[in-house]
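Morning!

As promised:
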Amino acid sequence: MTSNSNNDIESSLSQFPPAVLEAFQEASEAMDSAFTEEEFNLWAKEGVSIAGQTVRSWESAVEYYKVGSHVARALAFPSFMQWARCGTYLAQDSPALAVAFFKASPLIVGNLRPQYIPRWAGLGRSLYKGTWKSSTLSAKFFEVSPDLIRSLPFWDVEVFASLIESLSYKSYDVSMECLVLGRDVLPAMGREREAFLSMCRALTDSNWREVKTCLELAPRALQQIDEGQTGRFLKLGERLAKTGLRETAKFLADGTSTLAQIPQTSQTHILDLAEGLLATSPDAVAPFLKSLDIVLNRITMNQLDTWYQHGVEMLKENPDSGIAFFKIESTTSESMLETLSSSLELERVKGVVKLYCSALSGSTIDVLDTQELVNKNIGWVDEDTASTDGTKVFLPPIVDHYPRKDENFAWFKVVATHQVGHLEFGSFNFSFEKPAACFEEQRRSELELNQSERQAALLREMGDDAPDISDQAHAYTDIGRFLNLFEDRKLAFDLFTVLEDCRLDYRIKMEYPGIRTASERVQIEARSGRPEIQQLPLQQALVELLIQMSLEQFTDLMVPTEYKDESVMLSQILHTLRDVRANVEDTTEAALRAYEIIHRIENKEEEEDQWQPEDLDDPGDFSEEQYESMLDKLNAGQQDGEDGEGGEGNPYESPEPVDYRGDFKPEMVQLLTKLQSDKGESGEGEALSQEQLEQMLEDSAELELDAEQGDISNSTSMFAQNIMKEAGVPPPDSESGEGYGPLLHDDDQGGELEAREPKAYLYDEWDFRADDYKPRWCIVKEKVLDEGESVFYNESIKNFSSLLNHVKRQFELIMPETFRKTYRLVDGEDIDLNAAIEAWADVRMNVPPDEKIYWRRNKIERDVSVVFLLDMSASTAEAIDEGRNTVDDRDAPDDPVEYMVWLRRRREGLVRRHYKRIIDLEKESTTLLIQALESIGDTYGIYGFSGYGRENVEFYVIKDIEESFNEKIKRRIDKITPLHATRMGSAVRHAITKLENQPSTRKILFLISDGRPQDRGYSREGVEKEYAVHDTHMALQEAKRKDITPFCLTVDKSGHDYLKQMCGDMSYEVLDDIWALPERLPMLYRKLTM
Amino acid sequence: MVEATEPQYNEYAIEEFLVRSEPYYRPVGDEMELFTAAYEQHIPVLLKGPTGCGKTRFVEYMAWKLGRPLTVAKDSTAQPLNEGEVRVPLVTIACHEDLTASDLVGRYLLDANGTRWIDGPMTRAVKTGAILYLDEVVEARKDTTVLIHPLTDHRRILPIEKTGSIVEADDRFLLCISYNPHYQSALKDLKHSTRQRFISVEFDYPPADVEAEIVQNESGCTSDQAEALAKLGEKVRNLREHGLQEGASTRLLIYAGRLMSQGIKPRRACQVAIVWTLTDEAELQRSVEEVVTSIFE
């Protein structure tokens, strides 16, 4: 370094205040070593030029020299000079800026890429508008920069700076405060920062005063909601800000606090709704979010949709009332909430109702939504009416008749009890041959005899000997055979229905006095909706009369004067059924008698003065003689009538149904049951052809096949096909594999298989019908599971660390227990000397001695081998969370905006997997278990199984029984995924093979599943679920025979029914709370091996 | 009403306990003939059945019936037996996990003069010719089976290892065990070698009409209430396959009936005696409760 140039510089600097020179001299020592001579000169000269910019720019130069060495350490020389020049320009504008710039620099340069330095300087410069205030702001910007740049990406800093700039046009004070706030708030934000900044940006245009409040509120507010949702939430805020929302900050605060109350899984949905609302009316969004808290306290998420939709409708019509609606400041909104909150969804009480029904009926009853029955398309069409098909009870999805929840539940109970009553009191067990209990004569047999004679005569006359298809078909079920006796099937069926319902209601009233109050209430309501008797033509009026009596209305009934005796007779018939002894055969007898009377009366309208009120609560006993003579009289009258006017009666129409009694279809139920049982014993008896079935359906009074619903023959044939599917009978013309239903194609055909590949094993399968094994029936293919990442394993250990410690401790306790001597026992191997001496001393001192003077050693050595079999069937993919209903295209909304919302939700549903699946818990439990097992040293193997079809039972090795634990196994666990079906039997058999070769004294086979065993063709003739259960049972038996202790653990709540059968006297456990699996599994194992 | 009086109780030596007054037992099938026949023929009896269906009561009743020639209340001053009279004491032991062989056979106790042998209940029963009733036998430790085996075959002996002696059973001695096959948690099972030493009499809850009779008799409630309770029992037992480990036992129904006869409201009585006793699971509780509210007003 030449002192020459140095002197030059020092002399030029000396014209400035001495501080400059001092700073230079101080710095030059450090810089001397860092820079080459040339570079040093350039650096020094730049300082001179800075100092020379304006009057006060010498201050900048001082700072420049001071920080030089720090900056130089981080920057290459060209960048360094670039930086210096930035300072020079700033000094040109305002020395204060340059000072701030230089001051901040040492902290900045380390964190900012050199090429951004000019842009950073530019940001500060842009805030300077030549005024004093602006220069303070700009300087402040440089001051806070180090903090910002350290933790924000540079473009966010840029955005923030431009935000501050635009704010500065409004108020320097505010922008100054925001700048400081920003420094504190922004670094803490995550991905949502960008969205937040852009929201603030939008605010500066509309409501700049809000920005500061937003900044203040943001950190706390945003913490409350799910990280994934903040971005969307802020976007929403931004869009609202753009539309000129006044109180964005309030929105921010209210919105977040509301969302915080909502489970994370539902937050997306709420945001969907909010966005949907934004499209309709931005003003309503804030009230919506604000009310949400209150609203959700009263109704469920599902109900919220209804409420929301209603609000949107109102908004479209009248924005003001819509907003009031969302603020819950309108009566409509209030009353809607009232209704919704008191209404009861079947979904929520299904479990209870199901158990209730099962308890009453004594068989397993499924409770389903009526919608599902309609979807089956087998003849039931009404979506709001309860019904039963013999094994399931169908109830409407929602009840909102009453303002209170418990009342609505009571309604459910009444309806369910009535439906179960059909099963409990045998509506469907009608047998043509069985005698009635209350009626004396078997008129139906007599009638049938008469009819068949008549028909035979008719046939002889016509000389036509073709068998009547419909007759044969109708005789297929007993109810059909009965209804077949009547000319007017519809009338007969209606009478049967009302009388059977009357019998049931009476019986229920007697058997279950507890629901009397509720069912009386329902009956009274049903009565109020009935038509007036005197308005109807005679036949219908008499049927209506019966209905009203069946609803316990016996007084003040209008009866036609002309047929007063007949009405009394009908009432007598009905009263006969009000007896606990009455059975369904009595109902048919009663229906038959009622039919004979009503059928003989012309179905014509009567004048109003032809009616008189009558009390029929005690009409006296029914007597056959009176009935006979009444028929004679009627016959005579009929003759007269025909001679006289010539029957001009109206055609008979069915009465209005009684809602709570639902849809009663005995013929269908008997048909389904019969089809199912006939198929079981195939070959025996004549199966019903599809044509016969169609014929039968067409004639059945139970189906309402209106012409409007399309071509009748078409729909009956469809019904017929569906019914056959439902019953599990393959429709004759369908190709295999087509249509839905229980596995239609089975591979019962085909014979033994051969294992050609290595690692493929053949096993027999148990056929419980044949009571024998099917030899070499299944191929089990053993594969080592692919390796994934070990992350899952490690994460699980981390997540369950506390539980793991507990489990491990428990396991470790087992070991010493086996070797430890237990002292001070009342009985044992030998005398415990210490205790004996003490006791003896006590005796000597005349103190009662302690008797516990023995010790014993637990001699059992632990020698356990265990195989864990994990169910990897597709069903383990089921989410455990309450899980929103899967959306499918059918409910896609028409409105384009809603459609977008809907579509987005759907897509998210596909990618997003916040929820846990059964298999995830299985995996976590496995992880825990491995840890535990490793600590105790038992021999263990872990396998997964799945497969498709008998020739392809996949058996995945996660840890082979002989393999020692290693990294690979950790990685395999990651790859446990839901696959196909579950052919449990073969998997169990293969596991037995694995265990069999182990020398241990105690062997355990631990099966963890999530449901029934099932697979293609894992059933006899494709439908019997028991086949799989029996086979698995047999496999477990085999294990037991080989001294292996099998244990089944299932997470299927409804597992009790088949597990009992599957495990027989072997142990099993049904885990009610799946979340308990990771904890329960090791504990169970421990208990099992102790 | 409980009055403030001196506590009254009776204490007997275990083998001297006799069933004095006729216990109420309502036979459902031929179990009485079977038991009597087995008793005469020295065949041990295994009583299978769910809890509270009357197994223990049956044994008590049979002890009373078989020993009926002498059921005089026995004073502490032992009266000599008359010629030809038999008495059948009943020794009941509720088995539990820690019940060891020596709990049954007997053990040495320490006293001032060293050790003294005390006979266990089983030894006493064998010596006096009692009916030995081991309740819930699967619960007992495995070493008890060692005792059961020689007692239950033709030998009818009880080896006492500690004293080095063998006791031959009195002619009237009968071993009777009970076992509840329904326990799902039973990770234990009765071994076949043990099982096949007994005849098995299966018990189940009686049919509704019989059960109503029993409930009414035992609890003193009205016949309507008894019938309703029997109906309730029947319905609740239907839930056994749906998560309920055990159905409502006759005993529970009787409890409910007793509460009713004391004036407790039927619904409430059923709630405390049945619903809450049966299960802790909320949904199941609710379901059973719905059945209760359907049957009772």
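The first strand of chain B starts at residue 45 and ends at 48.

Hope this helps with the figure draft.
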